[in-house]
User: Which sequence fits this backbone?
């Protein structure tokens, strides 16, 4: 009776949770309903977690002796893990958001891999009862291994992605024969999976042999994640985070099957599919295939001679640029990672408000892959208080640059490089870009004369209508604001 | 009534197919402006793995399984709690120009100071 009630409780809680997850994600398709969407998903999560403790009533005889200790451990892990992550998520700077998402994603992958390891330890390594091939049990074992593999790759890959985004790893690590090396490691890992499956067919397992293979299998999977992420350059990071998000979703879905838990299966697969779609959308925005991101040779020094670019870099004082914008009729701002790095979003909005008070039309143009995460610029501007109806996406605003007085490019580079339109030899050729070069004047706020993450020289900076404003974005914006204030113009001139 | 859940072979494939399709359709309509919150939100949703961790840990009957289970719950809880905190913080910042300025920082909504009315 107790068991039935527990099953009823868990079953219905999981059903409601699965519904709330999907409904919540659905509500996230508009900024207005999105906050309620995430709250609904949160309610689902709390419900499912509370109900999962009911499974204490249905544990097998073997686990009964361990139950009090296990319950204690579960509560401790839940409180420690939950509160630490909650605190970190609440206090981290908004600009550090991409790496936080990466690390939380890695945690989920690690959890999925640990669940797979428990299932494998708990006797799943023996599938047949001594005679012949048991297709169903072999299938279950394969799914467990696959989920564990993807989860482990997602864990170590996300940690590397976090280190890169956090600036701990500055340069992509590339060496000769890297793809061959990665391929060999991946094949060895699959070989270990094969050994585990083969061992399982032999009836009661030869545990030491399987245990060694198991440890090797997970170690190699972790290594694959590291090796896969190391060579990927900063510009591709949004795509990589999205891939690992999809990976963790898949791993969770597969482990949900192993645990016979439909809520995990549904939530995992919804995220897996959503993550895949998001990855494809982003890759499309960069005009690159997902495989060329993963097996990248992007960011290698351009073969092109720098002499092929005509014109020169024309520096300009921040004050002059600020005053020129104040007297312009229309300004389009193109923010990039440099704005996030300098934490200049608040000052930027201050400048924008001053311009608007002087009847200058101001719009923001966001490239799909600006920043280190899809939509990072939108979040950054939202933090500063910029209303989202001032923010336009590439396809909605690209035609308007031609009739605009000033395009202000802040810490963005590759997304405004006209070489993507014209120069077939450029590695970014074909990538849709913001046509900032078509504006009457272009001001580029940039820390120095370096190249963008793609390692390509930007012809825009050398164009006749372009001036360079060197300096940290926040410092430059402050000088612009002061210059405009110094004009002493009435606000509604 | 038999409440024991048993999902095997093709049933699992049907669930995966429908869930995958649902995910594809739901996300296909999200505007680019919400891509970061969405990624963070789906990141939160796969935090459900913590439930799998709890069930595995409660079933654990060896020290190794207990250790692994502890880690699964620890990591899963981190995924869920962190994912939620970050997503909610991000979404709280989106506003239209029609709304009054209501900035939030570090997750706590800033109190709107209204001048005291004089009698």
Assistant:
């Amino acid at each position: 009776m107790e068991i039935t009630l527990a099953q009823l409780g868990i079953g219905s809680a999981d059903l409601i949770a699965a519904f709330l997850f999907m409904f919540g994600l659905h509500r996230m398709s508009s900024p207005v309903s999105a906050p309620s969407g995430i709250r609904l998903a949160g309610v689902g999560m709390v419900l499912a977690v509370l109900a999962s403790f009911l499974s204490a009533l249905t544990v097998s005889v073997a686990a009964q002796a361990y139950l009090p200790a296990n319950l204690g451990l579960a509560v401790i892990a839940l409180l420690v893990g939950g509160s630490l992550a909650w605190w970190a998520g609440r206090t981290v700077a908004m600009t550090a958001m991409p790496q936080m998402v990466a690390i939380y994603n890695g945690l989920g992958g690690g959890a999925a891999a640990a669940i797979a390891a428990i299932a494998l330890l708990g006797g799943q390594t023996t599938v047949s009862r001594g005679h012949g091939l048991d297709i169903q049990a072999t299938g279950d074992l394969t799914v467990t291994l696959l989920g564990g593999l993807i989860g482990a790759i997602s864990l170590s890959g996300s940690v590397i992605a976090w280190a890169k985004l956090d600036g701990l790893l500055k340069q992509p690590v590339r060496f000769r024969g890297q793809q061959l090396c990665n391929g060999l490691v991946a094949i060895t890992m699959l070989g270990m999976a094969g050994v585990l499956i083969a061992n399982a067919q032999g009836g009661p397992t030869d545990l030491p042999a399987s245990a060694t293979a198991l440890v090797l299998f997970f170690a190699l999977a972790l290594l694959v994640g590291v090796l896969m992420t190391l060579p990927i350059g900063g510009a591709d990071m949004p795509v990589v985070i999205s891939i690992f998000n999809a990976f963790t979703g898949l791993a969770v879905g597969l482990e949900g099957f192993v645990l016979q838990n439909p809520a995990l299966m549904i939530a995992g697969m919804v995220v897996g599919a959503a993550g895949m779609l998001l990855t494809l959308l982003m890759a499309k925005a960069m005009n690159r295939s997902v495989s060329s991101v993963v097996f990248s040779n992007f960011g290698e020094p351009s073969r092109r001679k720098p002499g092929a670019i005509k014109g020169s870099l024309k520096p300009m004082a921040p004050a002059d640029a600020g005053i020129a914008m104040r007297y312009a009729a229309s300004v389009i701002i193109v923010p990039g990672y440099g704005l996030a790095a300098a934490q200049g979003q608040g000052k930027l909005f201050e400048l924008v408000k001053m311009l608007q008070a002087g009847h200058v039309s101001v719009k923001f143009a966001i490239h799909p892959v600006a920043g280190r995460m899809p939509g990072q610029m939108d979040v950054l501007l939202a933090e500063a208080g910029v209303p989202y109806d001032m923010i336009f996406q590439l396809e909605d605003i690209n035609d308007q640059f031609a009739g605009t007085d000033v395009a202000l490019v802040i810490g963005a580079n590759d997304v405004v490089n006209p070489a993507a339109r014209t120069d077939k030899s450029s590695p970014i050729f074909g990538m849709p870009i913001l046509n900032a070069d078509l504006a009457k004047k272009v001001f580029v706020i940039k820390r120095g004369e370096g190249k963008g993450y793609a390692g390509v020289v930007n012809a825009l900076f050398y164009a006749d209508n372009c001036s360079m404003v060197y300096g940290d974005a926040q410092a430059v914006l402050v000088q612009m604001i002061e210059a405009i204030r110094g004009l002493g113009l009435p606000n509604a001139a | 009534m038999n409440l024991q859940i048993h999902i095997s072979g093709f049933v699992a494939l049907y669930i995966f197919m429908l869930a995958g399709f649902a995910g594809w359709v739901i996300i296909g309509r999200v505007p680019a402006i919400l891509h970061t919150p969405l990624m963070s939100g789906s990141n939160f949703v796969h935090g459900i793995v913590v439930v799998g961790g709890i069930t595995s840990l409660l079933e654990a009957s060896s020290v190794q399984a207990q250790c692994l289970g502890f880690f699964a719950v620890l990591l899963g809880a981190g995924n869920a709690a962190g994912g939620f905190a970050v997503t909610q913080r991000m979404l709280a910042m989106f506003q239209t120009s029609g709304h009054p300025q209501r900035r939030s920082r570090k997750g706590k909504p800033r109190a709107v100071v209204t001048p005291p009315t004089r009698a």
About this structure: Chain B touches chain A through 93 residues (CB under 8 Å). Residues 8 and 14 of chain B are 10 Å apart (CA to CA).
